[in-house]
Every structure is written in C-alpha cells, then in structure tokens.
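Usage

Read records sequentially. Each one opens with the input sequence:
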Amino acid sequence: MKIKITMFLLLIIHFAFAQPKAKEQLTPDFEKLPQLLWKFNTGSPVIGSPVIDERCVFIGSINGTLYALDKNTSTVVWKFETGGAIRSAVCLNQDKLFLISGDGNLYCLNKTSGKMLWYFKTTTGFIGDVQHDFADYYQSSPVIYNNIIYFGSGDGNVYAVNSADGEMNWKFETSGAVHTTPAFYKDKLFIGSMDGNLYALNAITGMLIWKFKSTGHQYFPRGEMMGNPVTAKGLVFAGSRDYNFYAIDINGGYCRWMKQFPKGWALPVTVNDSVIYLGTSDDRQLFALDIKTGTVKWKAGAGFNIFGGCALGITTGYFGTLMGKVFAIDLKTGATRWTFTTDGYNKNHLNYFKPDDSYRDDIGTIIGSSENIVSLYNNMGAIFSTPAISGNLMVISSTDGNVYCLKKVD
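and closes with the structure output:
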C-alpha cells in the first residue's frame, strides 16, 4: 500500500512540474501606426502621465481637475477638482486613488466614484506647491509601499503618510524642492531634491542612510537632481541638471559610473533587464546604455527634447518629445517604426520650425524669454508624459490640452 501511495505522489509531482507554464503577460507591440480611437480636451495643458485600470483612464490637468475617463469612449465617469495645477500621475491601490495637487495637498479618493476619503496638507498647503523655476515642470507622483504613501513636495520635504487614514508617519527635510518620484529597494527609499542631492532613506523610519551630491555645472551649480530615480541590478540611476547621469551603488551611495551629456540634461530613465533607455533634452536623442558600464549600445534621433519616459513593449518602445511627436522605435536598434503627431504639432509646427523639424532661422526672436519657451511647448502639444498602454490601447497626454487614445491596428 505504501508503494502505491508513493507512486501516486510521484505521478502528481511529475505532472505538476511537467505542465507548461502560463506565458508571462507582456505589453503587446504596436507594430503599425495605431488609429485614433478618441481624444478628450481638458481645456488646459496636461503634464502628468495617464494611468489606466480595467475601466478608466485617470489624468490630471493644469486646470486643477482630475478626470476619470471611460477608456473605450472618453466619457467622463467622474471628475475631482483641486485647488492647484496637477503635474503628476495618480497612484492606484485596490479601490483607492492617491493624487498630488499644486495646492499642496495629497488626496485619497474612492477610485470608482471619485469621492474624497481624506486629504493630507503639506506645509505649503496654504500657499500652494512651490516650483523651483519655470523648468521645474513636474510634481512628485505618490507611490505606495507597504501601505504607506510616499511623495516629495515643493516645501523641501519627503513625506510618508498612512494610506488608510492620511496620518503622517514621518517627514524628512531637504534643502530644495522635491518633485521627483520616489523609488524603492527593499526598505530603502531613493528620491532626488533640487538641492542637488539624491537621498537614500529608511522607508520605515525616515532616517537618512546616505546622500549623494551631484557634481554641479557652470549654469546649474547646485546640480539639481530633477530626474526620477530608478533602481536595478544593485544600482540607483538618476539624472541631474549638471548634464550628468549617475549610476550609484544602492548600498554604499557612491558613484559606480557616470555619463556626461555636454549639450543638456539626461533625465527620464527606463530600465529593461540589462539596458537603460535614457531620454535627453538638448542632445535630442534617446540612448540605449549598458546597465553595468553606461556604454552606448545605440542612439535614436528624436528631433527635439525628451522629458517623458519610454513605455516598453516586447520589441518596441514608445516615447514622446516636446515637439508634440510620439516615436515608436525598435528596442534592439533604435530604428523608428512610426510616429504620431499631436494637434498642436499639426497646427503650429511651422510657426517655430522648418518642414524638416529644424528650428526656423528667426527662432531666437520668436522665443526670447522663458515664458515664450513654455508657450512654444504648449502650442506644439508637447509630451512631457510617458505613454500608458492597456491591452490594445495606448493613451498619451499633451500640453495642447488633449488626451489621445490610440487603438492597435491588426
């Protein structure tokens, strides 16, 4: 009898391990230019990235309103008005949604109804979030880790807030605005500040583990840490306004390697296995770097500044530029597969650029000031965000006020 039972168990074990594993769910490739399914106009520029769940697209606008749009029709399911510009992405967790607004508040909403459950006021809650300068485009996006919401603020603090009731667990003070989005490794939190430091904090206690100071630059001596940190392979990666991109040891806080981009900033980073996809501003290219050494594998010309991240498919990546173009590229070679242009680009392109996308000869006269630079971006339908993908849909936000939903073409 014991032998029969043993044989039976062996058969169970054999079949358990012999059955083929379910295929990992990977983001599908949009190999051809997708078709426009719908677009929704918020009436104001949109900086933050869209977030998609099984039902809705969630997107905030500079007009201070968060929209929950039906992802198939763009119908407004609900909207929530705050007291300041929204320049960040929401964080979803089960039936809750967490949102940072320019009014200095963190909001917790019911994801289905948009009803506010609680809010947390930072020290700038009475005057609104503080921008470092005109090129401080983003707010920190909230991130949930072990049921705690973490985010940075223009008041210079990093906050840890209980997701259940909005009570503060701790805060950590830096010497500059904190508009980067935190990254985590185990119980370490990594976040950059406009004071030029990347901070490693104990996520449970808020105590400082280490801080890394950027080199600084002639035009940006503080070396503001403006790029969102990303962790991978024992390293934390972050770009600075000092024209450097840093790979920092996740435990020791020292620089393993760095890469300089002499023409401008290298800020938005996306990591996929052994490759870093890094967008640049004045270099106007997307770089694929070896994660261990920073060696350039390839670079893809984009024609204009890249501030948003690269969404990754199986063989294709998708990113936007401040000219109002979305590029689909081959992840192995960087070759362009297709481009999509916003309404702002289609309408205003020749007001600033030649037909080949190079600047007009009189562009210096046209721009002339930082305010006019922002106007250029808004008029061109600049894409500061990372495209969001859900099934056969891709959603893109733009400073022309539109949210675009593209559908995969078979």
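Summary fields computed downstream for this record:
- The CA atoms of residues 195 and 282 lie 22 Å apart.
- The first helix runs from residue 2 to 18.
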